[in-house]
Amino acid sequence: MEIPYINVSASIEASVSLLHFIPISISSAEITNLNLSIIMESTADDGVHWQLKEQKAEVSFDTLNVTTDSSIVNTLVKWFNWAVKKTADDLLAIVPSMVDQQLQKINDIVVNEKQCTWDYNFTDNIFALNMTMTKNPTLEKGTRQIKLNFDGLFHDQMDPGAMA
Asked: Which tens digit of pLDDT belongs to each residue from 71-126?
C-alpha cells in the first residue's frame, strides 16, 4: 500500500520550551509530499486464515514548515529548518516498529481465533454479525472499490472476547 504526495496543513495549539526556559507557542505546521509506504502479505494458503507480515514500512516527506506566534522565532525556525527536518525524520524512523507492534496484536488475535472472535455487536449482545471473511478481498478494476466477502451469519450471543 502506498499513499504518496500528501500535503498536510495543520493548525496547532502547542507550547514548547527552548533551552528549558524560553516558551514558544506553535500555531501551525505544513508538510509537503508526505509519503507512506507499507508492504504487507498474507501468509495463508486458504485465503481465509492469515497472518500479516510486514516487509517494509517507510514514511518520508520533502519539507516541514513550523509557524510560531513570534516573528523572531519564525526566523530562527527558518534558519534551522534542517534541524527541524532531521528531528522529524528521526521521529519517523520509529513508525515501522509501531506498525509491526499493531500487526502483531492482530496476528495474536488470529492465532487465538474462536468461533465468535470476529463478531460485531449491532445490538445488546444478541444477534452478533459474524465478520469472518470467506475469501480474500478483491479490488474491482476501474471502480476504486474493494469487494469484501463476509460470512454474514448472525450468532445468538457474542463471545466476551469478540469485537465490540
From this structure: 888 888 889 888 888 888 888 888 778 877 877 787 787 778 777 777 777 666 66
Angle, CA 36 vertex, CA 1 and CA 51 arms, to 5°: 45
Residue pair 4/35 in contact by the 8 Å Cβ criterion: yes
Q: How many residues does the chain have?
A: 164
* Three-class SS of 96-118: HHHHHHHHHHHHHHHHCCCCCCC
Look-up of cell digits 524512523: 93
How far apart (Å, rounded) are the C-alpha atoms in residues 159 and 72? 59
CA angle 63, 39, 111 (to 5 degrees): 130
